[in-house]
Design a protein that fits this description.
single chain, about 80 residues, alpha+beta, three-stranded antiparallel sheet, about 45% helix, globular
Length: about 80
């Protein structure tokens, strides 16, 4: 998944739409400190950098060497 590069932050609804995670799961990740969120008044926002960090920290599934190699070596 690629994140929009023109956005600095996303609403919870946008994070849900982009990741496919449920609302309760997203708020649970925030509550547990796994996903960093920020408040702007009543609005809860997740910065693009924090969402990217969260996604990149998720474990790789399977034994695909290509996947593991891509995580170790940055794409050129």
């Amino acid at each position: 998944m690629t994140l929009p590069t023109d956005r600095a932050a996303f609403s919870i609804a946008e994070v849900i739409a982009m990741t496919g995670l449920g609302r309760d799961k997203v708020y649970g990740l925030i509550r547990n400190g796994d996903l960093v969120a920020r408040k702007a008044g009543r609005r809860t926002l997740v910065t693009a950098a924090d969402l990217r960090s969260f996604l990149e920290a998720l474990p790789v599934v399977g034994k695909h060497e290509k996947c593991r190699a891509a995580l170790v070596r940055p794409a050129s």
